[in-house]
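User: quick one, fold this
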Amino acid sequence: MSSTAVSPGTWFVTGTSRGLGLELVRQLLAQGGNVAATTRSAERLTAALGEDIDTSRLLPLTVDLTDEAQAEDAVGRAVERFGRLDVVVNNAGYGYLAAVEETSDKDVRDMLDVQVVGVWNVLRAALPVLREQRGGRIINVSSVLGLTAVPGWALYCAGKFALEGLTEALAAEVEGFGIKVTIVEPGYLRTSFLTSDSLALPAETSAHYPAVRAMVDDHIKLQGHQPGDPARGADAIIRRASRDGGPLRQLLGSDAHAYATAKVDALQANLDATAADASATDFPAA
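Assistant:
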């Protein structure tokens, strides 16, 4: 293998009982891939797949990714079953909508445990395997909200911004081992992400943030009308994983591209506005 095996190969995917993760498992199995799929409930995953899908190449794993030992054991079981890893997908996550002031200490720690600590646990377990193989691919599923932030999404954005920084550094660290890295940045996919089963809300809200309450209501109403097709999103990820080249980031959806473009334009305007003053804090030239 050079840097990636022929797709689909052997995949380790987290967060697979619903949404994009479930669609990835479906398509990978249909294409003859081996899939180690983690979820908090393996029974829920197998029930969601149904009886029409051949699961003989599926290793369902009930894992709490925030537990380092469980993540390490899951990766070890995957390698024991399939002999190697070709693609590792960190996809587990959930939404949270609240103003910063409404967000409790537990809310913050729970979100960052999943979005950051859980990913780190998987990476620490999987990277030695990929290094020994001298190749493979890591796909970290972020969001366009890992590039830009909007009111009410502060905690979710904090987790995704951290994931983006982690992944950028990782890509440079592992390039010499033949390991490729991709950050996937979806927009709104028509999954269950905005349902009560997936979307977390604060225990107490404040009357001082009516715009956030309106935003939450709008997002709940958006459920079922999101513009992005998760099946096409999963297909795009699988196709991208089979290619060696390509940019670090993979945007999914015209809405994601529009949000990202607006952020780049705003950042460039900020850089232009501060260019003349930026050097004022340097030591004077000798």
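User: anything notable?
Assistant: The CA atoms of residues 86 and 219 lie 36 Å apart.
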